[in-house]
Amino acid sequence: KAGVTQTPRYLIKTRGQQVTLSCSPISGHRSVSWYQQTPGQGLQFLFEYFSETQRNKGNFPGRFSGRQFSNSRSEMNVSTLELGDSALYLCASSGEGTSYNEQFFGPGTRLTVL
Amino acid sequence: AQKVTQAQTEISVVEKEDVTLDCVYETRDTTYYLFWYKQPPSGELVFLIRRNSFDEQNEISGRYSWNFQKSTSSFNFTITASQVVDSAVYFCALSEAYEETSGSRLTFGEGTQLTVNP
Questions:
Q1: Facing A42 at nearest CB: one of B35, B102, B110
Q2: Please, which contacts does A19-23 make with residues 24 or more away whose CB atoms are closer than 8 Å?
Q3: Which of A36, A64, B4, B30 has its CA 20 to 30 A from that of A110?
């Protein structure tokens, strides 16, 4: 079974631009979560999508948004990029019910904002 | 609010030494899950173990073992006979019980950078 895939793996943007990151979950997984990892703040939860609906949201500004498609693939968007948005963005997918909490992570997208 | 603390920022050992990574957590939930993940330099988080709050039985998997103690809110991870390939950042994480309407989220500790020297 293929793992979680994320594209692109690396991205360089400038302040003020917007960016869209993509995540394809493990086949059969309907939940996709996004996390931001920075040296200063560590790993922080952004949001979680299930069946095309945002089910849970972390404490991030509205510039961070996401969506999920009917095939469970998910995208996250960051608008008006700031230097502090430079981070590794990790996507995780999981199954349902008691197996839900086993979240499997992708390789991440490393975003650099100049 | 949930919180996970990994007080050891960095640990350096020599190959074949045993090493224990500490994890202390805070939660008001009675049902919760604890995890350990490994993050090698490539960046991907690799799932190692999940325990639920009702199962305090220690677990051993090869050179890895985990000690869960609710009385001290700790979930420590021991690597026996460490190897250079064990070098990575290790994260302890906590999540509340799954709810169909609200899902769940992982709260991570700060991570412990383990370096195993030959």
A1: B110
A2: A19/A77, A19/A78, A19/A81, A19/A111, A20/A75, A20/A76, A20/A77, A21/A75, A21/A76, A21/A77, A21/A89, A21/A91, A21/A109, A21/A111, A22/A73, A22/A74, A22/A75, A23/A73, A23/A74, A23/A75, A23/A76, A23/A91, A23/A93, A23/A106
A3: B4
